[in-house]
Amino acid sequence: MAADLEPRRFMTKVARMYYTHGIRQIEIASTLGMSQARVSRLLQAAEQAKIVRTIVVIPEGLHAEVEEDLQKRYGLSQVHIVEALDPNDEAGINRDLGEAAALILSAMQLSGKTIGFTSWSRSLRSLVATLEPSKKKKSGATRIVEMLGDVGPPQSQHDSTRSTQRFADLIGGTPLFIRAPGVLSSAEVREAMISYDAHTREAIAALDELDVALVGIGTCNIDAPLEPGGNFFTVEQFEMAKSLGAVGQINLRFIDTEGIPLESELDSLVIGVTLAQLPAKGGRFAVAGGRSKYEAVRAALRGHWIDTLITDMETAERLLRE
Q1: pLDDT at 180
Q2: How far, in Å, CA of 208 to CA of 190, rounded?
Q3: Domain boundaries defined on the chain
């Protein structure tokens, strides 16, 4: 184990000298008694090991006209648009959107707030992976509340939990976890699960007090690594939602093309935030884009379930055209 840590110590030391303190590579080499070539290799290794995370800072106002048009069209408080390198690469789009959202969130005053977090969202996990530790003075308790129970296989659940914990650590908050399946087999089982676990009850109670909600916008399909049944809706249940007119969902609460909630027996199976629990105007954030989510994003905008939208250029232009 110690042997494994030694190269990482050198990588971290060199990375801090170069990126944090602005020391030139030739000076680092001289100080540490190594060649400049080795310093360069250690910096590259630090990036590969994610000790160093390099992001491109998007200049403010780069897409100002399109962003302003979207704000007016849908009554939004803020719109931030990211250029996607490949519109067909949805994984890349999620990563780029998350990185952009991290820059925006880092500028916000979050101390003392109750923040709802959709830990299974890939773009929001990317946000957390990019977010820098808060340097702002804390004033009061900050809570990070998971807005949906566990969905997907165990590894995905583990990744979601770690993301929630890291988010709380980065902003100096306290995480509240929902350690229960996101979808249950019946309303009776759901109520029994909530009654059984005090931590889940605490988290669900905190959802009534949200100041900020980082919502998850999804389609009416099952995308890997999610699996039908178990702790998620089945194919038949999604088909039922679509038969009622669903084109998308916000944290597994289905909406139609105008953003109107579709009430059904499916609502009683979900352990998570309801649309009625989302915070008042100004606190609803969505980090979503890509071709597969277009209808869901448009519906969420039409229903005024979002105040701040971070999306890709293709989605933004399509929203304006239609």
Answers
A1: 93
A2: 18
A3: 2-48, 64-321
